[in-house]
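Write out this protein's structure.
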Amino acid sequence: MISWIWTQIKKHRRKLVYGGVLIGGVYMAYRYAHKRIKEIQEKEASDCLTHARRQHHFDSNQRTCNMTVLSMVPNLREILQQLFDTESITDTLKSNPSNKLELWEELKILSVTRMVCVVYACSMMSLLVRIQLNVIGGYIYLQNNNTSTHNNEKPEGAPGQTPVRVIPKPAQEKYLSEIKHFMDKGISQLGELIKSAVKKEISSISLKERLTFHNVESCLQHIRERLETSPEISNLSSPTLQLCPYMFPPENSATQGTDEIHEGLMQETRDILESADFHIVLKTSLDRGFQKLLDLLAESYKTNLQSGDPNSSHNTEYLLGGIPMAKLIPIFNGSLYKLCSDAPNPLLQELLLLESAKTLAANVYEAFSQPTS
């Protein structure tokens, strides 16, 4: 029996060798494929977990953005009240002063300026806060998810990546405090620019002149054109580019060169604020803001001019009626307290939910939450 087996082995030796090699090769290929599949599955699971963590952190960051913007509304409202103090002029007019005509003219200019400024200020403030918090949020996520942050070494298995830049908490706070430039100086300077445009547009309108809703809409559009598409700025790549110095300290400001980390954050933010994508979103925000303002003005026209007919709720003929400028001034004044009210704020809710603003925030966060090569 043994000799027969040995004879068969010698007889089919080549077949057995080839068969053994084939079986061994199949087994090794199976082991390799199994290992690769396991690695791919682990990598996919890790990527999904990383994506989920990043998404959770991003969503949390956006909630922080919204709450921060809304918390700044009372301060913004107070600043606009002080810059364009129509209330004190109104109180003075009650005493029937000798220069009441001059005061009425001043009141007309200030009321329209304040109404326009609140739209610009809310739009610019909401976007600036969103940009700053997403720049910092991206860096914080990257720091928290990189095990080599503490010693500034490259993470294992990630050749070619530069060390993650650590942003200390004091540097974060200093960077975020740059919003003071807009609140302390920018709004005031922007207000003067808007006031100049308003004067050129409505100085010739008398207090007795009756303005229809469409007249007011046209005035607002012309004021915007003076601010965004005037000949002086026609050579700019984006009409709203001239608004950047009001939002954020320019490169030649006193803060430049004080701190390498701080200046790096400042320059990165300037680059975003000067990008075409940002100004597309800013223009969309301004369009939405002025539409909300026009909606409020239309409601005021409806209250003042629409007949008492209960069946006329959808009738828009009241928009063709005119209201004297003197009677429009209180409506313009009151827009500050409607557009810049505490939560729920109709204007900021529109601006914070704007899809293009969300996309911009996601792009900024994504750019700063990824390791650089």
